[in-house]
Amino acid sequence: MSQFLNRKVYYAGDLIFQEGSPGDCAYLIERGGVKISKKTRDGEIELGTLGAGAIFGEMALIDDQPRMASAVATTETVVTFVNHTMFERKMEDADPFVSALLHILVRYVRSMGDKVRRLTDQIPPA
Fold first, then answer.
1. Distance separating alpha carbons of residues 105 and 99, to the nearest angstrom
2. Where does residue 12 fall: left (phi above 0), alpha (psi -120 to 50 degrees), or beta otherwise?
3. Cys staple from 58: which of 26, 67, 81, 84, with CB 3.0 to 4.6 Å?
4. Residue 15 bridge partners (DSSP)
5. 5-10 and 77-83 as β-strands: parallel, antiparallel, unpaired?
């Protein structure tokens, strides 16, 4: 398993990944914090912050679509990478119902993100 897991340290303000970039791995936060944000017409909005034990970046592995948001370290942060190969092996071992459910949930989240983007684009700037 060690051939699939790698660790990396990010420092406060470091970009982990950018919205729209390809997603080739997911991340497990061992220590530290990460801000997830999305660009809008009026600037960047924070979608949330994550701490130790959280997993992020997984949607791109599930549906092979570009990243929906950006991730930036808020403090010194240690993450473990889960690459596409490891993820695929885990999905092959998963119950088919669970696999299908994950795909449905990702499609739902992405469609909601698209709807929010369209709605915020229609609001006149303040």
1. 10
2. beta
3. 26
4. 72
5. antiparallel
Most confident of 8-22, 36-50, 57-71: 8-22
Looking at residue 114, what is its pLDDT? 64
First to last CA, the chain: 52
Look at residue 115 and tell me whether its pLDDT is greater than 70. Answer: no
Q: What's the half-sphere exposure (Cβ side, CA atoms, 13 Å) at 9? A: 2
- The CA angle 4-12-83, to the nearest 5 degrees, is 15
| Helix, strand, coil share (%) of the chain residues, nearest 5 | 35, 35, 30
With a CB cutoff of 8 Å and minimum separation 6, the contacts of 105 are none
DSSP-derived secondary structure for 22-65: ---EEEEEEESEEEEEEEETTEEEEEEEEETT-EESHHHHHH-P
Residue labelled with tokens 């497990």:
28
CA distance 95 to 93: 7
